C-alpha cells in the first residue's frame, strides 16, 4: 500500500484551503450573500491558510504544517460553534448576529442544500489532518 508523502499532504491541504477561500469569495462577491459575523471569523482563519500553506509548499518547508494545524484548529473551533448555533445546540440568546444583518442560523446559510458551517467544519478538519500528515516526514 502506498502511503501519502508529506509533500503530497501539504499540497492537498493548500489546494483545499485555496479552493475554500475562492469559494467564499464567490459566494460573497458574485452570489451577493453577505457573510455573518461567524463566517467572517472563519474567513480570518481560512485566508491565511491558503497563503501560509502555499508558501510552505512552494519553498518545500516540511514544517509549515504546524501553522496549518494551528490555523485549522482556530477556524474549526469557530465553525463548530457556528454549527452548534445552526442546529440549535447553542442557546440563541448568545447569537452574535444583529437583528438587521445576516443571521448565523438562517436558510441563507445553505449552499447546494448543505449548511455553510458544516462545510467549513469539514474543510478545517481535512486541512488540519493533512497538515498533521505532512509533518510525519519531518520527525525522522
TrEMBL record:
Amino-acid biosynthesis listed as a keyword: no
Subcellular location as annotated: Membrane
The keyword Chaperone belongs to this UniProt entry's keyword annotation: yes
Alphabetical UniProt keywords: Chaperone, Disulfide bond, Electron transport, Membrane, Oxidoreductase, Plasmid, Redox-active center, Transmembrane, Transmembrane helix, Transport
Membrane topology: Multi-pass membrane protein
Cellular-component GO terms for this entry: membrane
Membrane-spanning parts: 42-60, 67-90, 110-135
GO biological process: protein folding
GO terms, molecular function: protein-disulfide reductase activity
Principal cellular location given in the protein's record: membrane
Family statement: Belongs to the DsbB family. BdbC subfamily.
PANTHER family: DISULFIDE FORMATION PROTEIN-RELATED, SPBETA PROPHAGE-DERIVED DISULFIDE BOND FORMATION PROTEIN B
The name this protein goes by in its record: Disulfide bond formation protein B
Species whose genome carries this gene: Sulfitobacter alexandrii
Amino acid at each position: 500500500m502506498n502511503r501519502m508523502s508529506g509533500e503530497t499532504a501539504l499540497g492537498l491541504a493548500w489546494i483545499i484551503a485555496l479552493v475554500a477561500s475562492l469559494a467564499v469569495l464567490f459566494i460573497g462577491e458574485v452570489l451577493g450573500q453577505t457573510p455573518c459575523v461567524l463566517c467572517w471569523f472563519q474567513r480570518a482563519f481560512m485566508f491565511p491558510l491558503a497563503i501560509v500553506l502555499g508558501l510552505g509548499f512552494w519553498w518545500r518547508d516540511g514544517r509549515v504544517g504546524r501553522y496549518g494545524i494551528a490555523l485549522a484548529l482556530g477556524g474549526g473551533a469557530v465553525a463548530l460553534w457556528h454549527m452548534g448555533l445552526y442546529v440549535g445546540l447553542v442557546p440563541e440568546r448568545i447569537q452574535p448576529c444583529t437583528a438587521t444583518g445576516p443571521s448565523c442560523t438562517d436558510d441563507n446559510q445553505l449552499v447546494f442544500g448543505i449548511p455553510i458551517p458544516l462545510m467549513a467544519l469539514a474543510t478545517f478538519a481535512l486541512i488540519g489532518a493533512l497538515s498533521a500528515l505532512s509533518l510525519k516526514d519531518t520527525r525522522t
